[in-house]
Amino acid sequence: MFNMMDMFGKVKEFQSRMKDAQASLNTITESGESGAGMVRVTVNGLKQIIRLEIDQELIRPDEREMLQDLVVAATNKALENVEPKIKAHLQKATEGLLPNIPGFDLGSMMS
């Protein structure tokens, strides 16, 4: 028999774990490179840039446009790389709390 109080308890625990997991997203980091490693961007799980490294060769006025393009490309790659880590982190934090319902994707709630 379905126990509604038990389900409410699980939902509350899920919410609590999700809140804790989201609060610790800043501990997850991932990097992206462009220009054969001449530009490297590191982001955290909150999708904030936490480090930008630029090869000395690119720091010239005549390379400005290329540098801008490489920074954008490296940033986008880092954000793309961190996304699966964020999802895995949040799923692990809430593992086993809610039943596996076919067609119901918690992943969409976590990104």
From TrEMBL:
Keywords: Cytoplasm, DNA-binding. It is found in: Cytoplasm, Nucleoid. The keyword DNA-binding applies. Gene3D superfamilies: Nucleoid-associated protein YbaB-like domain. Pfam families: YbaB_DNA_bd (PF02575). It comes from the Bacteria. SUPFAM superfamilies: YbaB-like. InterPro entries: YbaB-like_sf, YbaB/EbfC. Homodimer. HAMAP family: DNA_YbaB_EbfC. Binds to DNA and alters its conformation. May be involved in regulation of gene expression, nucleoid organization and DNA protection. Belongs to the YbaB/EbfC family. This is Nucleoid-associated protein ACFPMF_11315.
